[in-house]
Write a structure and sequence with these properties.
261 residues, alpha+beta, Glutaredoxin, 8-stranded mixed β-sheet, 8 strands, globular
Length: 261
């Protein structure tokens, strides 16, 4: 009965919904293959765009910006947590924002829900962090309520105004060379809606995914694809997965035989 009522409601809400034709399995596969050509072209285009991003000029950050963290005052350099790259998302959680103080901005919260496990970014020498103007007590309460794991800092100076995120959300990307910090890229508006996976984050950085197939400037760190991938709880235990496992990327036939056995 409940399902019938839902169906009737949907028909009323979408009375003129024109769906695609129903076809045979052969016709469906032919249509998929036709679209796959365009999807592969899009993937290659996205890779080429990321390669251009890795050749973007850098902007030196001269100001010593200050933030508040769970353990007190920290600088922008501290946000890297010793790694070479920092991806810093400005989330709107503060007085005057819809949802305060129970929630952060709904769009920023949706983005936070999409963030993958941070161990994979750490394995590529990259740190992801969030920053807002809310005090730390409120940020820690919100993180606990929403089960968010990323480091989240309080902006205390002109950082948001200087980096284009004082009125709207945005993702700034930085590179650390010793004590020097450089701004390498910036993503906002609809560009932010794709963020969350390890690949979308790494593609926004100066070093990229750091895999050998990438078109990167000379001398950039690169390792074989797949080989550095690991379980998120295993990066510190081992440099790579246990060799007793058959690597499907190296010997897919042997891997299949072992699975079947």
């Amino acid at each position: 009965m409940a399902q019938t009522k839902r169906d009737m409601k949907q028909r009323k809400e979408h009375p003129a919904m024109k769906t695609p034709p129903i076809v045979s399995a052969k016709e469906w596969e032919a249509a998929r293959q036709q679209l796959l050509v365009k999807e592969k072209a899009l993937t290659r285009s996205r890779d080429a765009l990321a390669a251009e991003r890795r050749r973007m000029p850098w902007l030196a950050v001269e100001t010593k910006y200050a933030f508040e963290g769970p353990k007190g005052k920290v600088g922008l350099l501290d946000l890297f947590e010793g790694r070479r790259q920092l991806i810093l998302y400005r989330a709107f959680f503060e007085p005057g924002v819809f949802g305060w103080p129970e929630h952060a901005c709904r769009g920023c919260s949706l983005g936070a829900d999409q963030v993958g496990h941070l161990a994979h970014l750490s394995a590529r020498d990259t740190t992801l962090a969030y920053a807002s103007r809310a005090p730390q007590a409120e940020i820690q309460r919100l993180k606990t309520r929403m089960d968010w794991k990323m480091p989240w800092y309080t902006i205390t100076d002109s950082f948001d105004n200087d980096f284009g995120v004082n009125e709207w959300h945005g993702t700034n990307v930085f590179f650390r060379d010793g004590e020097r910090v450089f701004r390498t890229y910036f993503i906002n508006n609809r560009g932010d809606e794709a963020m969350g996976s390890i690949w979308s984050y790494l593609d926004a950085t100066a070093l990229g995914r750091q895999e050998e197939w990438e078109d990167s400037p000379e001398g950039y760190p690169q390792t074989p694809p797949y080989k550095w991938w690991n379980w998120h709880d295993n990066y510190e235990a081992e440099a790579s997965p246990d060799p007793k496992w058959i690597d499907i990327t190296t010997d897919p036939q042997e891997a299949a035989r072992k699975r079947n056995a």
